[in-house]
């Protein structure tokens, strides 16, 4: 009996009608003779509503209690889905984070799953019960509730699938992973199959369809992953499979173009060229859980010093500057500068590292549109450029076209 | 160090402002040097919203999952209160039903507390942490969440107070227990002190300020109970103390007038006069968890048979008739009739049983207003009459005045 984890995102359980439609898909899958487990997000908008409630009482100061508030969202949608499955004559049972024994570590608000004891869920499956697990939540070492960060329900689903040896189908409001955001480029195409690494980079560079850590975990645990639409009439005919790179037959240089708006650039000018100086700053930022990106180090006007630049999310800028103000004294930076109103546009593809003209195509495409590149950062399978926020759409369309991703006709 | 359990109802945590005001009261109490534990209801309106969501998915068919939905309400308000106390510089921690180890038995939706292990809450108190317990919830024998029925947060508070040997202050949107509903009779007076038994009867007969089972438990466990307003500037100066009867100095016949609208009367006509017949019917109703009230048995036109009449809540009428249709065949009732549009008005007082003219006053007062009494039922400390729904206000005011409860001037 094949095991399937079906994960439904916020819009797929956003209303009573959507819960009914998603429950119908679960019923279809169960009717095929599969052993089905379900993972749900909170109803669309609910997490924001709860976050606002917590914010009114100094939520950020008490992240553990904020997590207790937030987990209520998935608790409700899991129980509603179990109710709806029950109303359809199926046996179903909700499992909250503490009942599914999802242990987490790390800071509240963005904990990571450290262990998932599948025994309770397996016991339900063996009794013919469909377990409906509340996504996004687990318990911390103090036996209190924790959340896994935005998009964490995907992670819950992949972790459960890995523990069960199951296939993982992620149902969302789009019918798969696209070469870029179709709201910006109508000629974007659905990618039928993509490698774990590309998926990971696309997610990391701003594509919102699947959370980075989920792709990472799917790769590490060998979980067969699909991204499907819960709105489509025939989701099996559509969707994107996330698989090992060598299983992808289509050879292409670039798989997709991702973007992330509202980035900020921070420059530490005239820092000591001894690596300890940079290590101190980045260590302090890491301790403060501030994600940094696109690090470049360049020549300074003063001997024995360098300029270090990196980007952070705009909303982390002030926290980052605070951390640097304390830490950077040790590094002796001559000056600390920052710039906002920036965006990151990235091309991702497993073929990138094999093609020498990739960078030329990139600069030519952006140059033709007079888009200035402020920073560039590369990895094996991606190139990111930092540009002005206002040029995002133009850059995405130009790169989508330049790398031959536009749909024919 | 005196221990105090402070319980805040739905309106007292209904908005961020109300949560702040209630948190300020907790801070005041803690500043007096008391060891304070808090119990909260869901934010006003939240339980109804969640119940409606569950209802859209056949909630009544899956009462255990409905309970999982409903408990989210108190989970959120408990964490918000803990956040707000934290923002005020106090140490506080939320305790959900499964964390406070509140074990329950009985049907989901109206479970009763069978055990409360105070150890986790006590451990918090001993570390100077204010425990904020989610009311209305516990866990069942299957280790899944359960709710305690409407008003169940009062029960949570009394049970916690009993376990801690604490005083229990119930903060609500009225400043105490009144001689009757002030919305119906503006001359209603606050009762400074009332006996457990009277409180229990008033609650059972429809007064909404405190749940019946809470008064019962407070009496059984000797918990000092106060009902206070969280809206008043000086709640200590107001409120109602619920105490042993012999601690009440004021001697009065009737303490209050309660009412419950939307009652239905069911009549089983021509039932065998052998007690087994009635036992079968009432047993089946009890098995179906349908509360029955005001049972009267009268003469039937046929020899060897009796007429049995009783009342149920209007919303239980159809369920009750279904149960009777199956069960009553054995009792051989000649006919089953029912009537709706009825209300119950009750007078409650520990002096009732000492005064012979109580019934005369009642019939005279109702007779003067031409209010027909359909059924009358009495106990040691209460008399209830069943009348037409439309006469409730008139009857309440007439009885309030007849028993000398109207406020002077």
UniProtKB/TrEMBL annotation, chains A, B:
Give TM segment ranges: none
Question: Does this entry carry the keyword Zinc?
Answer: no
* Keywords, comma-separated and alphabetical: Amino-acid biosynthesis, ATP-binding, Kinase, Lysine biosynthesis, Nucleotide-binding, Transferase
| SUPFAM superfamilies xrefs | ACT-like, Carbamate kinase-like
Q: In which pathway does it act?
A: Amino-acid biosynthesis; L-methionine biosynthesis via de novo pathway; L-homoserine from L-aspartate: step 1/3; Amino-acid biosynthesis; L-threonine biosynthesis; L-threonine from L-aspartate: step 1/5; Amino-acid biosynthesis; L-lysine biosynthesis via DAP pathway; (S)-tetrahydrodipicolinate from L-aspartate: step 1/4
For this UniProt entry, the molecular function terms from Gene Ontology, in alphabetical order, are: aspartate kinase activity
Q: Which stretches make up the ACT domain?
A: 266-338
Which EC numbers characterise this protein's activity in its record?
A: 2.7.2.4
Which reaction does this enzyme catalyse, per its entry?
Answer: L-aspartate + ATP = 4-phospho-L-aspartate + ADP
Family indicated by similarity: Belongs to the aspartokinase family.
Against NCBIfam families, the record matches this protein to:
asp_kinases, PRK06635.1-2, PRK06635.1-4
- The name this protein carries in UniProt is Aspartokinase
